[in-house]
What does this fold into?
Amino acid sequence: MVTTTMTGAEKRLEAGWPQRLGWTALTWFSCGFLVWVPFLYVALRRGRPSDWGAFGSFALYECVTLPWLVNTGDGEADPFLSLAVLVTLVVATVLLLAALFDKKTPPVPMMAYGQHGQPPYQQGYPYGR
It folds into this structure.
């Protein structure tokens, strides 16, 4: 399903490598606590159901792992929690770097004349200024 604007154009969210690396750094440097933030940003900007699904899954991850972390805070490390955090960070990194943002579209060259070599029709004041 493609989300379109009022004019019928598809909503796109292009990002360069600095922005992608910045969102990934936020995810890793917060130890996974803010992994949902980039996905909320994309869901709000683009509004596709798949973007909302990705945000919902990472928000659910956060709602499950935080109580799990608090309950296992007795000094022992839980290997399943550690594995879940690492797998989630790797999945978020792959999504942020490769799949989440749209690829940049190459600029369309402007043609001075129409398809048949004639200048395009310009509507307006016919006598010039």
